[in-house]
Structure formats: C-alpha cells, structure tokens
Amino acid sequence: MNLPEEFIQIMQKRLGDDFPAFLRSYENAPCKGLRVNTLKLSAEEFARRAPFPLKERVEWAPDAFRITEEKPGADVYHFAGLYYLQEPSAMCAAPLLGVKAGERVLDLCAAPGGKTVQLAADMGGTGVLIANEIDRGRAEILAQNVERMGIANCMVTSAAPGQLSAVFSDYFDKILVDAPCSGEGMFKKEPQALAHWSRQNVAMCAARQRGILDEAVKMLAGGGKMVYSTCTFAEEEDEMQVEALLKRHPGLRLLEMKKLLPHEVCGEGHFAALLQKEDGVRRNPVGKLREVREFERARKAFDSFSDDFFGAAFGEELSVWGAAVNAVPRGMPAIDPRSVGRLSCGVELGRWDGKYFKPSHALAMAFGTRAKRKLSLSREESVRYLRGEPVPADLENGWCAVCVEEFPLGLGKCVNGVVKNHLPKGLRMLR
Length: 431
Ligand code: SAM
Known about the structure:
Rossmann fold, Archaeosine Trna-guanine Transglycosylase, Chain: A, domain 4, 8-stranded mixed β-sheet, 5-stranded mixed β-sheet, 14 helices, about 25% strand, binds S-adenosylmethionine
C-alpha cells in the first residue's frame, strides 16, 4: 500500500521500535467482523445456525465474531437483521459507554449505524435512543438499518449538532460521539481516506471535532457519560483533542482511554475515550410538539388491522403524524419532528390515507414475531420471497409475517393459498 510519506514519518517517530510491525500490518487482508443482533437471538444461538464459518469472538465486544466470508451481506439472515457487519476495532467504543435499559442515549454521528445497533442491543428495547446523522442521504441508510434490526425505541434524526443541542440541553444520560475523522484506520477499506490524507486535513478534522464535542457537552445531563471515538491514529484528533476538551470544560472528567493499533490487535484500529460530566442538571427537551395529530379515526383503523394481524390488542403507545401511525416507546420525547429533521420515531406501523390502513415493512421487522399468521420459510425458500416472488402457503387469507425460520423478513398478504409479496422493492435481493 502506498502510504503518504508524511504519515509514515509521523508514525515512525511516535511508535519507535514498534513501527516495523505497524507497517507490516498493512500487508494483511482487512479484518472483518459481525455482531449478532441480540434483540433477535443470542450469539450462541447464531453460532449454532451460522451460514458461514465464524472465527474467534471479538475480545472487547460481547456477541461479536471475526469472519472471513466474502459476501456476508448477501445472506438471508442478514436481510432478517440477525447480524450487523462491522470492523472489529470499531466495536470497542459502544461497550465503553456502558448504556443500560431505560436510559436516554444519543448517538450523535450515527450513520450507517454500527454503533447505534450495539447501543440498542445493550438497552434491550427500553429507554430512548436518538440516532442522529447530519447528512440526509446517510441518515436514510441509518434509518433502514434501524428498521432491519427491529429496533423499536429509536428516533432517527438528521440535524447539525447545534440544532440538536437547542432542543436537548442537559438531557442525555449517555452520548456517543463517533466523530468524522481523517480515517487513518480506514486506509485499507476506504481508498478516499488514503487519497485525502494530509496534515491540513487532520487539522481540519480536529477543528470540526472540537465544534461537535462542545455541542455534545451541552446535551449531557449532570452525572452523564460520553464516549468520544475516532478511527484515526492522529494525536491531534485523539489524545490532544481530549486534553483540550477537558481544558475547555473543567466539569468533565476523563475515566478511561483506549487506542487499538493494527499491529497490536486483530483489527484496523480505533480510539475511544470515556468522560463524565461531574455536576449539572437533567432536563426535559425544549419545544413541545406543536401539532399533536392524534387522529382517533387512524387509531381505529389501526386497531381493526391489529385485531386481525396480531389476534390481540397491540398494547403499545401510538402516535399519528401525517399519514404515519407509529408505535412510540415509553418516554420518547414529544418534540416537533421538524426541529430535528426527524426521519423515524419508534416503529412505523403503517400508513392511513383517510380510508385504508396499510401496514409498513418496519412493523414486520420489529413486531412480526407476534403476528397471528406467520409463514415460516426455509433459507432456500426465503430467497424467492427476498427476490420479490409470490410464495405458495397453507394460511388463511389476510396479512401475514413472512419469516426465514422464525425470523421476520417482511410482510405478505395471503389470498387463496398464495402469499402476495409486500417486500419494498428497494430492499429486494438482486438476482
Ligand atoms: N458511528 C457510525 C457507525 O458506527 O456506523 C460511523 C460514523 S462516521 C465515523 C462519522 C459520521 O459523522 C459520518 O456519517 C458523517 O457524515 C458525520 N458528520 C460529518 N460531519 C459532521 C458534523 N459536522 N457534525 C456531526 N456529524 C458529522
């Protein structure tokens, strides 16, 4: 690999005798890993069913394995959200934050969502998780991943950190800032990181991180904890950034700092620091929802769908915004969606056009296991469904959850022994 000369000199000076080993690490193939979605099954259960070989567990991330599989994203279990693909060292930041059930958690720079998924699993479906991504296109990918993994307690937003801090001052118990960086740990995987590397770019990234961190501190409640992480080795973006942050905010305390380097671990490298805001208050968000559109008729339309689909009352709290009927977890703040560029809130159960209620794909991914009519397909049969084909089924007529084994893949509607395919076109498996 053609590493920038200046980068080589900096690392040589910093690593001394360790430098040759660091340089040799670039000859190895990129490290790959997956983390089992424990909202759906345990790591042990996944290991029993794994469709390709799993190597050893990742030491710093429970429920994760290293893999060598060429196309792990093309497997039906991936479509069912049973696992998330993530570079092993990148898995070290979220566990450091130690999130717990019921907490208010922010993932400030969240797309495509690797760490959001980890945080959600640790929260076990309770509490409030806000996953934010400034770039709207990337935020849409984040929202799709949240949906695929069946995460029910997450709001996906697309806002600048300053927009969020205007709403969520002193609000969060835990914040993850996985900042945009110069990506020195991504040189193997992302050729642009290598092409764009320069000392000026490192300085530019450090300045941007400073701004993001200052906004994050505003959003942390008294006693709250924050992890700052990057996938770069540059001290200006890592250790020096933390040092300067502590100087600017004397109320913060450094609890732990770790740097994974590619010649010391089986991973591409990552930096993470855990900090705590010692004093301060814990507030509710600013700016209540101005237009609460709780349409009784939409709720009734959903209730009659729910009686048929679940065979029982649904039981979750509902909210209606425009045409979307959502299941909203307890404690989710009722803020104006426009103030934070909201893409999703809880689980979109379906859309009501004033006449009909049509269920959404997200409903199947989060609540499909509760459906009264479930079509359980083998892995081979599931490929037909994922390609958009209708599937023969011995089921009564009506909406059903289509599953690979017991894991939902999407919705179908059974009519006289054939399940019509309702998998959204953009999510279908390419032939
Ligand atoms: N946490 C993600 C994961 O685990 O999948 C990866 C996040 S990536 C390292 C950093 C993200 O920060 C990018 O998606 C990028 O678009 C976003 N970003 C860029 N500029 C930003 C800014 N000024 N404020 C907040 N986020 C920004």
